Amino acid sequence: MSLKARTIPGDAASEKFALYLAAERNLSGHTLDGYMADLKQFAHFCWPNVVEGDRAWGAAGQGEARRFLSELTKNGAGATTVRRKLAALRTFYRYLQREGEVVDNPFSMLKGPRKVKTLPKVLSIGDIQKFLDAPLKKFSDGRLGEFAALRDTAVFEFLYSTGCRISEAISVKWGDVDFSRGTLIVTGKGSKDRLVILGSKALAALLRLRDNLSAAGGALVLGDSHVFLSDRLEKASARFIERRMKTYLREAGLPEDLSPHKLRHSFATHLLDAGADLRSVQEMLGHASLSTTQIYTHVSVERLKDEYAKAHPRSGGR
After folding, report:
1. Closest by Cα among 286, 259, 99 to 190
2. Among all residues, which ones are annotated catalytic?
């Protein structure tokens, strides 16, 4: 989609802003679409009857900005959504100020709703086992081909074994994996490389997948070939892996709304539950700040409190 197609029809300011986001901020198409959607929503709120043409952005004051955010909340938008839209529109007006298009930024002094901290969902070790067993079980029942079963087992064993993000996993190439040491280097957020560990189960799953692909064609396991492939033997997308996960969640009788990221949450929580050092887990996850990793200690504490409440005669929990 072209930049112009993403913007408000006939509005020069939104076109220039989109160009700024793409050229100077180097934002992805997905992020750019988000900014433009927020901008269009505010434009429709302020000028509902204007279909095409320049908007009088400078005429919208703090009153309109405040009412817009209030309307979002009334219509059921969550705190995270409202805060994101506030940040996008604040950035837009800051850009207009820099370009001399407006004098004031109506969003500059407004604060979004407080973000509610929620603990990440994690799977129990038993649920993880049922989930990871599902692809090969489906293969043994004759409901899934061998390659698909080996690939799906390998990718989910990899995610749980390493704590990698799905974007990191689908970028891994065979040349990245050190089979002799059971390690590999992945590139995470901010293009930062880190060493991750492959457990014996994940390592074995990767070896079985490599053998299967070698039989299909040696080019598929060259050093610069991606490890995780789609059914068409092309680099798997995050969406493809998510769809495969839903299949096995259903197979294992688990909630289908769980995402691959929940394997990362489970990885961290299970390590800390077993006594792993917090800083080591931080390093394995690739978190820049220890405070980000500490949320998993809260998950562990909450689980302990639940067990206490269920079991202790004077806990008040039963």
Report:
1. 286
2. 165, 189, 261, 264, 287, 296
